[in-house]
Amino acid sequence: MSLQKNQLSYDAEAALVRTKEIKEIMTYPKIIQGGMGIGVSNWRLARAVSEAGQLGVVSGACQHVVLARRLQDGDPGGHYRRAFEHFPVQEFVSEVMGKYFVSGGKSAKEPYVIVPVFVQKPGHFLQKLAVLSTFAEVYLAKQGHDGLVGINLLEKTTLPNIFSLYGAMLADVDYVIMGAGIPREIPGVLDRLAGHGEACLKLSVVGQDTEDDYRVRFDPKEIIPDSLPELKRPKFLAIVSSVTLALMLAKKSTGRVDGFVVEGPTAGGHNAPPRGKVVLDEKGEPVYGGRDKVDFVKLRKIGLPFWIAGSYGTPEKLVEAIELGAEGIQVGTAFAFTDETGFSREIKDRAISMAISNHAEVFTDPKASPTGFPFKVLLLKGSLSEEAEYNARPRNCDCAYLRSMYKKADGTIGYRCSAEPEYLYEKKGGDLIDTIGRVCLCNSLLADVDIPQMRNDGYVEKTFVTCGNDIISLPRFLGKGDKGFSATDVVKYLLSLTE
């Protein structure tokens, strides 16, 4: 089934009128909680933020692997099984449970079962796993309140995104937030999926010719034969770092863009690279200059709501953002170390302790991520941020979430990751220089949330913690004698000057 390309016509004046009309009937949240890492922004955190009246967000990144591992750990508390009871196709549930659930949990010395990796044409079981995983996470986040819940995905990880979006929409997700690339086709995909229609995303394939048209496709009817009522189309917010990108998305996306998150270079996770030639400072970090600053006057003229992110996690910065024309702010780091997040308790305690003693250091690593984007790293003893730990890790790519695609001699797609073993990367036509300093983010970020893989040789995957520069401000959320703080504490603090 071929899909028609639907270009969104754009008129700035009409957009301003439309935005004013929307604002008359809708109040936007002042705070968007960041969609941090794999499993860090989990359903518990999103639900807590939503219960506090703001936009809670779950991370959809690699969620199918997170679900598979939680089930192998016995689904502590039975939460995912509770969500499964409400999934519209119970055959999905039976298949996934039969494959991964271990009553009482697997032995700590036993490796997790490897989950199939995404390719251009994934098998039906993997499609089902991806759909079920984001359904469960969003469903749990939405229980017990009538607040808003969003999901965050990476544009760079194109292959699983359609399936992840559909699962979230089955659970009535309210917002979709995407960055780490140019998510021009996502609005149209949301329109298609709302009617359970076939959707596709164009793939970025190294070496492809102008006439090539590689796409990943998903037809929900192939795995959900029963008719279902039309789904709510969630609002779509694109993460941008420039007015140019925001304007392009507003003009040329395949459907409606509902707003933007404007992310600065001090935000955690992946950062947009500096504009122009990349220059590193004496520490080896990318240098951002005047061209990387956003002109908020020009951004306002686009006529769509926006939120500002990157060291805006204070009441004063929230006021400043609103004065600049924003609806509010997106905050990641402060929420990342709350009691509710997926970070292990050890990571939270160590990070808070480092912040209290003023020894928390964050490095913007230009090489670590296989995506090629700069990546914020908390320098933490015993993690892969240490050279000795990095060198001791056997290179491995079995989650394959951040692989890139290339055109093979026969015209089919090949897959490689600059964090995989060097000989494999080179065998697939990759340049060895691209492998230097690359970190397996998939396995290390899964280790961050207490589900590290154990290898057959006994090696246990190490952590690699990402956060923003705002980590130094964590002590402000601690009361006297407190060792931790909640998402509600963060929300109350941020709103203290505006409510």
Description:
The protein has 499 residues and is α/β, with parallel strands linked by helices. It has a single domain, classed as TIM Barrel. Helix content is 32%, strand content 13%. It has 17 helices and 15 strands. It has helices at residues 12-25, 43-51, 63-72, 79-84, 90-100, 124-141, 158-170, 186-194, 243-252, 296-301, 315-323, 333-336, 345-356, 387-392, 422-427, 441-448, 487-494, and strands spanning 31-33, 56-59, 149-154, 175-179, 199-202, 205-206, 215-218, 235-240, 259-263, 306-309, 328-331, 362-365, 375-378, 404-407, 413-416. The protein has an eight-stranded parallel β-sheet. Strand 9 (259-263), helix 10 and strand 10 form a beta-alpha-beta unit. Mean pLDDT is 88; it is low at 1-25.
Distance between the termini: 51 Å
Question: Care to count the β-strands?
Answer: 15
CATH architecture name: Alpha-Beta Barrel
| β-sheet strand percentage | 5-15%
The CATH topology label is TIM Barrel
The helicity comes to 25-40%
In a few lines, what is going on in this structure?
Helix content is about 30%, strand content about 15%. The chain has about 500 residues and is of the alpha/beta class.
